[in-house]
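Example 198, ligand magnesium ion.
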Amino acid sequence: MSHNIVWHNAAVSHNERQQLNGHKPCLLWYTGLSGSGKSTIANAVDRMLFDLGCHTYLLDGDNVRHGLNRDLGFDDASRVENIRRITEVSRLMLDAGLIVGTAFISPFIADRAQAKALAGDAFIEVFVDTPLAICEQRDPKGLYKKARAGEIAHFTGISSPYEAPLSPDIHLQTAALTIEQAARQVVVFLQQHAIICQ
Ligand SMILES: Nc1ncnc2c1ncn2[C@@H]1O[C@H](COP(=O)(O)OP(=O)(O)O)[C@@H](O)[C@H]1O
Ligand SMILES: [Mg+2]
């Protein structure tokens, strides 16, 4: 890094932003298999929080790969860089006082640990826990069918491992929950931890 780059302190403090927003910032890091329900639940949570007057933003896996991370593939180094960029963007949004959601498979414990290390206390790991058989049955994008046919390499759950969180902050067992119930569980967590007060 250049020695000529000096951090400029912000005129508006985190506390001031928090007071204006009426809530604390946090990073809801959804992790789970493809088709587990990350995007669906994260969007339902976003809707609920928005309707409560919270300032939120959701970074979704596929959407980010269309733009910011369009140059990245799916090899190990690219996956690490994918997470690093997402986390850095999330940090900027946390700095702006937002409740940020990220919906990426993020299959490796080490990568999520890296995100947690960068985001600090604001990091909330949300395990969207759906058995592989159910994800495969849902197959909302037809990807499992392709993966089983050998058309997609390194597909999480089929030909690449998924390392489940050992102690997630929020554990959503979607086989036993409606989308609404799962989203409600996240919102209640934020209320119980005084991140939002509504
Ligand atoms: N209880 C549930 N929670 C989340 N999604 C569910 C549930 N029941 C059924 N689904 C369906 O499962 C699919 C999950 O897809 P998606 O949210 O795109 O998964 P991901 O983002 O994890 O790849 C959606 O079609 C959703 O409607
Ligand atoms: Mg998704």
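Summary: The pocket of adenosine-5'-diphosphate (ligand 1) is lined by residues 32, 34-41, 103, 138, 140, 174, 177-179, 182 (CB under 6 Å).
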